[in-house]
Amino acid sequence: MLARKVGYVNFHDSAAFPVENSGTYTGSRARSKHRSSHRTLIGLLVGTVAVIGFSHVALSAAITNYGYSLMQEKQAVQQLHRDNELLKLDIAKMQTPERIYSIATKQLGMVSPTMVLYSPSYAKHTNGTNTR
After folding, report:
1. How many Å apart are CA 87 and CA 74, to the nearest integer?
2. Is residue 59 situated within a structural domain?
3. pLDDT, tens digit, 9 for 90 and up, residues 50-93
4. Residue 110 confidence class, pLDDT cut points 50, 70, 90
5. Which segment of 30-39, 40-49, 52-61 scores lowest on mean pLDDT?
6. How far apart are alpha carbons 88 and 80 in whole angstroms?
7. How far apart are CA 14 and CA 4, in angstroms?
8. Number of structural domains found in the chain
9. Cα–Cα distance, 123 to 103 (Å, whole number)
10. 61 lies in which domain range?
11. Residue 94 domain flag
12. 3-state secondary structure string across the chain
C-alpha cells in the first residue's frame, strides 16, 4: 500500500473522509471569512472617520460664514452710529437762533418788531404774576 504524508492530503475535500458542515470554517474558507469581516470593519471605520471629517469641515465653514456676517453687521451698526451723529449735528445747526432769524427775514419776509408791548392781563394769564 502506498502512503502519503499527512500535509499533502486535504481531508475535508477527500471522499474518504466526508465532513458535515458544522458551521465553522476551516482552511481557505475561514481565512476569506476572516478577511471579509476585517474589510467590513475597516470600511466602517473609514466611513466613520470620513463622516466625522466632513462634519468638521461643514461646521468650520458655517462658523466662518457666521463670523463674516457678524463682522458685516458690526460695520453696518458703526456706520449707522456715524450717520446718526452727523444727523444730530445737522439738527443742532438748523436749530440755532441765527439761522431761524435769517430764514424768517430773508426767505419769509418777516421783520423784527420795533416795539414790544405787554399788557397786564396777558402777564396774569401766562404765569400768574404782573410784570409792570
Report:
1. 20
2. yes
3. 999 999 999 999 999 999 999 999 999 999 999 999 999 999 99
4. very high
5. 30-39
6. 12
7. 13
8. 1
9. 29
10. 48-98
11. yes
12. CCCCCHHHCCCCCCCCCCCCCCCCCCCHHHHHHHHHHHHHHHHHHHHHHHHHHHHHHHHHHHHHHHHHHHHHHHHHHHHHHHHHHHHHHHHHHHCCHHHHHHHHHHHCCCCCCCCCCCCHHHHHHHHCCCCC
Rounded distance between C-alpha atoms, residue 9 and residue 3, angstroms: 11
**Domain assignment of residue 82, yes or no:** yes
Question: Cell numbers 482552511 correspond to what residue?
Answer: 27
Of 113, 118, 114, nearest to 132 by C-alpha is 118
Q: Flag whether 64 is in a domain.
A: yes
Residues 6 or more apart whose CB falls under 8 angstroms from that of 104 comprise 110
Q: For the segment 5-19, what is each residue's pLDDT rounded down to a tens digit?
A: 655 555 555 555 454
C-alpha 4: how far from chain center: 77
Asked if 76 and 84 touch (Cβ cutoff 8 Å), the reply is: no
